[in-house]
Amino acid sequence: MFYRPEEGHGLPHNPFNAIVTPRPIGWISTQDAAGGRNLAPYSFFNAVAYVPPQVMFASTGAKPDQDGTKDSVSNIRETGVFCVNIVEFAMLDAMNTSSASLGKQEDEFAHAGLEAVACETIKGFRVGGAPASLECKVTQIITLAGPANFAVFGEVTGVHMRDDCLVDGLFDVKKFKPLARLGYKDYTVVDDTFSLSRPDD
């Protein structure tokens, strides 16, 4: 099968999200200038550079109570900072609960029954108990083609790692089983790994 996106695919559901998988989930915590907290999962997320460490996530779509975007991007525009929380399998239900379409004044931490812990290097909060959290200052927000599509880039200024996830000096994903997004309503979990050396190692 071949299709041109502008002409449609003729399938029951859009296959694009199922092709680019698995995708890590960035559980983005932000607050607005008045201190109102927000927490939302984004599967258009990844690390993009080592030195300095940098990450990005993309927000698509808009809320009726925001100006052409969602709470996360709006808050980041106001404060210039955000925190990426890594989602473990055990936090699946809380992550899903936090994705609900709530009003901009509602607190997803409270809605999902999560502990909000103050960050160290930025003004904001991280998810208590998350296997890892990355405190970030914004480097740029890029407007992408299409309605309400934005890519947010940030430099990591602080890294939290849960002690039980460190094994012999390595951050061991098998200790917490990271959640990843597939297409449609499907997810997967990393519970096994293997090593592979590069040809020039």
UniProtKB/TrEMBL annotation:
InterPro entries: Flavin_Rdtase-like_dom, Split_barrel_FMN-bd. It comes from the Bacteria. GO terms for molecular function: FMN binding; oxidoreductase activity, acting on the CH-NH group of donors, NAD or NADP as acceptor. Residues 18-173 form the Flavin reductase like domain. Gene3D superfamilies: Electron Transport, Fmn-binding Protein, Chain A. This is Flavin reductase like domain-containing protein.
